[in-house]
Amino acid sequence: MPSRLHTVVLSDIHLADAELGQPGRSLWKRFKRPKFFIDQSFKRLLRFIQAEAKDDPIELVLNGDIFDFDSVMRLPLHTSFNVSWIEKKRGLFPEEEKSRFKMEVILGDHPVFFDAIRDFIQKGNSLVFVIGNHDIELHWPLVQKEILKFLRLTEEEEARVRFCEFIYVSNGDTAIEHGNQYDDYCVANSPIHPFIKIGKRVEVRLPFGNIAGRYMTNAMGLFNPHVESTFIMTLPEYFRFFYKYAIRVQPLLPLTWAWSAVVAFWVAVADGLLPAMRDPLYVEQRVNGIAEKANASPEMIRTLNELRVHSAIFNPLKIAQELWLDRLLILMFISFMSFQIYAVLNLIVPVSLGWWLLSFFLFFPGLVYYSTKIKSVIVETMEELFRNAPLVARITKTQRVIFGHTHRELHTSVDQVEVINTGTWSPAFKDPECREMFGRKCFAWIRHTSPEATDRSADLYEWLDPGLNKVPMKK
User: Fold this and answer.
1) Which tens digits make up the pLDDT trace of 408-433?
2) Which spans in 307-445 are helix H?
3) What global pTM score does this model have?
């Protein structure tokens, strides 16, 4: 891919299928309604950038989680593959043909988005997809071919589109990586060898975070998966949420959570321990191919792969705590012990069931105290990105690093290395009514500050859509 004067980076759009609503459940996955799609806004952004660039070549890098395969719940009417009962409830497995179908659904529900990309490429610009954790199914060749087929590009235009496994180096000055490799809940165990075999099925290995979203969030449509605070709460906050929303829409939510958490735990540990599929005869060829697409050397790819954190699936207790299964087990133990106390008392002297409840509530404060001591570590991912940014820059011989993943926009410096996080364009709302937006729609723009400048500089901008009667952008 030739040198580009302008590089524009954004991430975490989370395109999925449209949720058209269910009778009597107006809040169910409301964030997936077409009215919240960013497609038109994205189209106006590309037109604005091209006008500002004045016909200079532009490189658009879509830095991970552009698609959200885990959230796609639509099922095919007619299919050549089998669909199990669990897939009907929680979405299709990440097998190649099923992932291709999900991509087809996303393409069909977001024509404006892809029309904008087609127009952008046809005007001589280039497009780079960096695979994140929620669009990890982009590893499948059929999925990539489905995108290119939908875009209807010429052979020359297709050559300006590439799919990078986890890193891309732009113009030798900027390393662009989604960032999930530094999050132990969302790390891909091996982006070089992403496939596993489960019985007769070949699948992309899903990180724990994807599995939790697939088997839990898909079944609990009042929680917004794009904002941690909507599903990571304290025990009192969960009680308030239940009585404010769930008791009307999903009264059996506790049972749904318990069953889904057990399934997510089992799948995460069972799949995570399986060996990656790899052919020893083609390992070097695979690494070389990844390096070529990333504008990197094979040595860079191997070294960056070693930077990844240790996956949480190797710490089952940690996963259990994140799913609240530890608290469920403690609750079951308290209930059992309370009944034992009641049974012993009842043998000595007849007592009412109230003594069971009394024993239970005597133990219950201990559970509450334990719950307050367990803190989710998901929010610590940003710090892990910071710690690794200087190493990423050093390995790739670049002066800046751009991440996504955390949904928190930021422009700072760490050990004299420029670090940017482009935040999220996802339908991220803090409430089920989708009234309170989370974050800002930001993008990074790397360019020469003047015709005389030899080095490019980078800025983080917020896109204030002129289609919504706002100024185009601000720093």
Assistant:
1) 999 999 999 999 999 999 999 998 99
2) 316-322, 325-348, 354-373, 381-396
3) 0.91
